[in-house]
Amino acid sequence: MSSILIADLNACSRDDFVAALGNVFEYSPWIAEQATLARPFDGVQQLFDAMKTVVDQAAPELRLALIKGHPDLANKAQRAAGLTAESSAEQNGAGLDRLSDAEFEAFERVNSAYRTKFGIPYIVCARRHTRNSILRDFEHRLPNDTATEVQNSIDEIYRIAALRVAELVVSEDRLDVFGRLSTHVLDAHSGRPAAGVAIELVELSDLGISRVVTRTITNADGRTDQPLIHHRPVPIGCYELTFSVGPYFAGRQVATSNPPFLDQIPLRFSVSEPESHLHVPLLVTPWSYATYRGS
Amino acid sequence: MSSILIADLNACSRDDFVAALGNVFEYSPWIAEQATLARPFDGVQQLFDAMKTVVDQAAPELRLALIKGHPDLANKAQRAAGLTAESSAEQNGAGLDRLSDAEFEAFERVNSAYRTKFGIPYIVCARRHTRNSILRDFEHRLPNDTATEVQNSIDEIYRIAALRVAELVVSEDRLDVFGRLSTHVLDAHSGRPAAGVAIELVELSDLGISRVVTRTITNADGRTDQPLIHHRPVPIGCYELTFSVGPYFAGRQVATSNPPFLDQIPLRFSVSEPESHLHVPLLVTPWSYATYRGS
Amino acid sequence: MSSILIADLNACSRDDFVAALGNVFEYSPWIAEQATLARPFDGVQQLFDAMKTVVDQAAPELRLALIKGHPDLANKAQRAAGLTAESSAEQNGAGLDRLSDAEFEAFERVNSAYRTKFGIPYIVCARRHTRNSILRDFEHRLPNDTATEVQNSIDEIYRIAALRVAELVVSEDRLDVFGRLSTHVLDAHSGRPAAGVAIELVELSDLGISRVVTRTITNADGRTDQPLIHHRPVPIGCYELTFSVGPYFAGRQVATSNPPFLDQIPLRFSVSEPESHLHVPLLVTPWSYATYRGS
Amino acid sequence: MSSILIADLNACSRDDFVAALGNVFEYSPWIAEQATLARPFDGVQQLFDAMKTVVDQAAPELRLALIKGHPDLANKAQRAAGLTAESSAEQNGAGLDRLSDAEFEAFERVNSAYRTKFGIPYIVCARRHTRNSILRDFEHRLPNDTATEVQNSIDEIYRIAALRVAELVVSEDRLDVFGRLSTHVLDAHSGRPAAGVAIELVELSDLGISRVVTRTITNADGRTDQPLIHHRPVPIGCYELTFSVGPYFAGRQVATSNPPFLDQIPLRFSVSEPESHLHVPLLVTPWSYATYRGS
């Protein structure tokens, strides 16, 4: 998908508009089509609100069809038959194409139990989640009644659509759909930012193997040149951030024990607000460290 | 092995003395035998020094025989043929009877390379070590010359013997052969010691699987009723101490995020001085924590 | 006052008993006299409870006389006329003999306002308080009704009496009337307890000048040989504990800035529970520090 | 003094140039005059370097005259007779017009001892200093020989001049003469920035009374809207930054002790690098806090 200016969306033909935004809602170009009637849009938030209004005001059977148009998560048969490019990228981004056997079985069980109870697919905005959090959310949602889950499905569809719109449309305003995860290493032994500390961010999984999200190294400010995660939601889930402080202090000729008391420092924490800025700093000496949820 | 009073060792017959202490040095009752000549002993330190003096003053070929009398570490054939009860317990205590395949191969390689170069077995006081540190020490010792390694072997044999003596002999004085690892959880959210926090101590291994050393729970003082490791050397190596703070704060109805920012907090650290007291406390809120090497 | 064994108090004559304990309640030997009837006592707690029971069961006018027998706090005229030795020592211990002019006026105002409203002296167990906390408590008590303040007076008299008994009587059990204030300095730059750090504890005052409670220096364990305050209640109030870390790190040849970022570190905190153990540690590098309420 | 564009300084007449910059060096318009020969200047750094070159290449007697043209610090007679507007503002900014008697005597002694030994006034760039650091620097400089102090005087004059130029001249580049002192309060009890915390920054003085530098309050980010000190050098000296955390936590209905364990938290630290960015954060709960030198 290439990006398009809000001004162009306001000026273009209805067909071009639908061509640009028809896939924002899975298999439902009628939503973009009807949204053209609300043109012109001041910005992307107004555009997105117009599309939501179309869905909000649609007949119940249309809304149900929209829901049912969504694929299962991590369903091999559906993947083989072909997903939309958007769904495929979103599911793969959450690692749903690289599940362990135990995770695969868990997803099958979840999809099946959910469909059996509610008659609709289990819909989650995959880009806001990790494997773990998708499965955990299911446990919270399964006991609900059908009306609640129809609404939950619509809400998740809005989140999926908002992210698709945010990446498609260029506008001065922005949808509030991205978060950020950052870190900072302060060397309290020398009273300076710690430069050159290797950092690894890993997504933990209860059922499968851990997945490396990113590896980087601190710069002269003790920060990373880019946030660990940015320009996207920070997926809800459990992470471990590991700092190679042993090599760092060894490189500075700081006297320590052998082996060093602290070598690889893991900080394990969970993300609960994908659209927020979460800062997880490390204040460290060869003999002590501290961290906190910063912002 | 049952314990014996220093007074009884001073008063008993030479045969009974050797019966009691003959296994302190592997397959070398002659050391205990000659040490009887130095009786009476004020205490266990004087007794142990007398035994060391016997070894220090022994002819080189006797010392070499003492060294060669020691088994390889984690050698299956030797285990099948039978180790002394002491060696077996000491090796098992370090987990050498439950190695992963990769560790097994590493130990075979180490034993063989060491024997090939020096003509003697690779001797390490296993109770002062973990699987990892035994293999790491080897890397430091292999480049040495033979004279250095003969002395290193004797030093390790003294450490082995000191621990055997410390457990056999009851005396007012003590050999300085035991260390201690302890922890303490302070809840800085409530300003109180954190009671009821589940704690797990795991020995990490580069080549094998982690091994649970102990599981326990904090008492009303935020401490554990017993130190995590005590009445023995704290094995040199890398550990992870994990605190279940998520359930702790949930049990106190403290408002947090969902999932909680902090749930299982791992502190990863190394032990370098087996005979010291190492204190690794946790100062924690639902949003921050700190640790340091205390004493 | 010299100390006396509980066994001797059980065995001695009624006159000797009263001679020993007659001053426990200010100008009221009749309380000790009646308490002899409850002999023998298992220990000091039982003895003290018996004395309280005498007061609890005394006629209202006797209780009022007991209350009225107490001196004002920091009253110059009464001091000139002579206080009991006990009252004098207790008031002086709280610094009531060295008030600033502003404090003096405040105490006069308090005594007078209290007497005017309730017809009795304002009674506080001075050993549990600082100048500040006595004046603050007054603000809380003045709005009360007379019945409440009669009871509050009796409660304070019990606290005064309990401390006098605790210092007079030797018994295996102890009255729970003493607290403790301690500290500990951990040098996170070297990973060791900080030895040789000069420490000053000061009692702060809103109206007067600060008063040095104690000056000391840390030992090899980073602790003080004696707790900062012990064998007595820790007076309710606000304190500043100052650590000379600049000289400490300079003495260890640790490179810092000029002047050093941290030189004299003040920790300002309040005591609210005089009978508890309060631990206020300092975890410090030349560039950072942390403290917490420990126990 | 009003500001002037570098382009205008390049284009204006020699007289206008001298009119604009004649006071950059105290009573020495000849320096600006000669610097006009080096026009045009790319920016303010090049301009300032040109002025320094004039001084560097001036005859020794001219340089000495420049030095001798400077006033004493805190000299009442000279103040009465009139200082340049620049000197007056600079000295007042450092509080030299509001000295305690003891400080006044100290400055008199310093000026006199320095003049007696070296025959020149004791010159310090007052905007980079506090009362304390001026007096401390004197102790370091008095033992020097005359050549060293002539050079030190020139260096201080350059610092004074650089600050005057930086405030006079508008250019795309900047002289590196300003620093910054900032803070940040993170509430580790709630895991959020602490908003609404009153903060007071005080300059401490060994001989005089403390001087409030600024009072402010944290915003929604736990920061202050403006840095505590900025757009100027951060004066070398000792400071105390006090945070009103008692009222903050009380306002959030957090249960604490009475009186609260922590109420006013003082952080006492020194500034050694006036042109750097110094960040002094507070990480706090009702029962614990930590700080560190950040950047």
Give a structural overview.
The structure is a homotetramer of 295-residue chains. With 295 residues, chain A is an alpha+beta fold. Chain A folds into two domains: 4-170, Orthogonal Bundle (UraD-like), CATH 1.10.3330; 179-290, Transthyretin/hydroxyisourate hydrolase domain (Immunoglobulin-like, Sandwich), CATH 2.60.40. Chain A contains eleven helices and eleven strands. In chain A, strands 3, 4, 7, 10 and 11 form a five-stranded mixed beta sheet that branches. A four-stranded antiparallel beta sheet of chain A has the order 6-5-8-9. In chain A, helix 3 crosses helix 4. The mean pLDDT of chain A is 95. The A-B interface holds A 133, 136, 236-238, 240, 257-266, 268-270, 272-273, 287-293 and B 133, 136, 236-238, 240, 257-266, 268-270, 272-273, 287-293. Strand 11 of chain A pairs antiparallel with strand 11 (288-292) of chain B.
